[in-house]
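Ticket reopened. Same input as before:
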Amino acid sequence: MNKEVLVIGGGPAGIECANSLISLGYKVFIVEKCSEPGGHLRKWDRLFPYGVSASDTLDKLLQKSGKAIFFYDTEVQTINQVDEKFVITLSDDTQLHVSSIVVATGFTLFPAAKKEEYGYGIYNGVITNADLEDGFKTHKKELFKANRVGFVHCVGSRDEKVCNRHCSKVCCVTAVKQACEYKDLNPDAEVYCFYMDLRMFGRGYEDLYLKAQNKYGIRFIRGRVSEVAEDVNGCLVVKAEDTLTSRPLKVTLDLLVLMSGMSKNDDNDKIADMLGIKTEEDGFLSLPEPTLNNCQTVTDGVFLAGSVTGPKTLPETLNEARAAALSVHKYLSR
Amino acid sequence: MILNGKKKIWSEYQKDIPEDHYFYVRSCIRQNFFPASEKLFLEVVRDRLSLDFFETEHHTTCGGIAYHSDTIPQETVMTIVARQFALMTEAGYKNYVASCITSFGLYTEILDTWHHFPELESKIRDYLWKTTKREFQKPEYLAHASDVVYKLRNKIADQAKYKLVNKENGEPLKVVEHIGCHYSKMFPSKGVGGAEYPYVLTGMIEAWGGEIVDYPERRHCCGFGFRQYLVQANRGYSLSNTHKKFESMAPFKPDMIITNCPGCPYFLDRWQYVIKEMEGTTYGQDGNGIPVFTYEEVAGLVLGYDPWYLGLQMHQTPVEPLLDKIGIRYNKEEKYLL
Amino acid sequence: MKEFGYSLSPSSRVDLDKIDKIKQERLFALEPGFRKCMACGSCSATCSAGNFTDVSLRRAIAYIQNGQDLAALSLLKHCMLCGKCLVICPRGINTRNLIMNVLKVYGEK
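Engineering reply: fixed in the latest deploy. New output:
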């Protein structure tokens, strides 16, 4: 049994799992399909609920991963199990022989254009949470000139029409975070959040929500946006129901931010197939013991970490990454 | 507005519409509201484009109005529709084209229901046999007549005598398109362009030189809605829906409205008069209304047919301002002579 | 005018483009807790008057946010200022002060 482990995915889960494995004395290969590590974290500006810098966070994670061997722009092509070892062929024809595999392939950001009624890619003022985060990161000044701004929660989440019945968990607090940040950059803006339920489950989230109401005067409207159109001035006419007063509601906005949720990684089926594991109805990878063990699979030596098994916050993902590393260690020390 | 975004959606909702050999069925109310539209459709496809469109006098109502007004049960309407399919089968056709949007929606709904509940289809086959001794094949292709005109739009443009262009300044006319609810709202994949940004009429307008207006209440119902209109006490509700649409489109200063449904052109046309009487409001230029057309009428105008031959004197909102804008010649004296 | 036997129906739609934001700001200045409401409804559930008359602070706040001032005022008309809502409010809103100031800001002709 060699001490070599393959981690599929070079996002926060993959990096932190590798960090833990390295400290336990393992040699780690990380296969990443993009040209840089960090996954979605690389594209983000600040993290909820405390506004910590995303790039500092990523840098800190990467500082400890020096000994990991990264394969960028690379995907896993085939996996063959020979006795208790895994023989892996990568898309650049590299062959690896490892004793254990950690799948940390994360999620796909829901493609907002699928919700045709919101007009993403059609109406100029409609952007996504990722676009806004990019705007924060690259200081796109023109983006912060809008005086009437809306945030639409649950875009591609809790929506059977796009085959995502699940809650993406992090969008509520992300919307509140982004709404507050927008107000910091443009204090004159009127900001609305359209929500179905506000799921402020984490430490510090409810405080952020209260601050959004109290300090920033953000208006929370309980109702899902039904459609968006442009008026003659190119402004966005947004329709929803205010379910708290049972009335249809209309507001004209300059900017509408769609909170795209976490969908299953598009590669999940392929990866599950190669490893003899399954996906659930929601497309995320299955967990045979979802309460007792968030890392385990039905295939010996194969472990999971992060949002490949469902939407998660970053701290949860990092904890799971460490737990997966310990699971590998326990498996290889048996 | 990012046109490429719309084009992407349009490309995802395209149908493989056959061009020729159709069994054509008329609409109950269109024959009365816009009597020349169906005649013109057949004239264009048969005489101008030499295509095979068959119709039979044995065709009856599809039962859609009764069905949507809750006066007949679903199995009755299905048996009526089964009989229409039997007529198509007996005439030797496989492509079925309906002039009416509600018929189109109803046929689509019934075929889909039979797909999911085959036992219901067997039951209807049994009913049809018991009542009429007829049997039927389901259509291989179900089209709405606007799908066919959409398919033929460039051929019509090739023969066009006029373009949808303001002759004074050469600018494209601003056109509001209004799709019947039952065209693609029930089954977005069955409509060209889908349900949110339907392309069927937009494609015609683009091909014929006009420019489409995308206004906030574009997706809103015209206000017809069967039950809302049929009872006088409910008519204010029907009117209010139409009013909402006009209030929303007015800032865009549209020159005309094109529709593909039996009820929509009728209500968008007639209610403008009622709103003028009640509120004193008109939505077109110079105190006029906004003329409303069926897509066949627009095709006819583009092809150079005489406006009175197209039955445009049946409209309540006068069409003359638009004819003048395009430069279409017509004889004022003959308006009510035909 | 011609008699048609029917007329345009009034719209029930809330138009946020048309609400009086100056009054809302005044109310907020007088009672900053106004914005903290999270619509839990415990004020209305506990309301002494609400069981017998149409009093609901929860709905009144929502109506003010939507610019439906008259509807909000009528929902507070029968309030007896007993203060039960003040005791129960999980966000600690000074509900009595809020009610008094709603009447002050929106009750003026």
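Helices of chain C lie at 21-30, 42-46, 57-65, 69-76, 84-88, 95-107. Chain C has one domain: 25-107. Please confirm and we'll close it.
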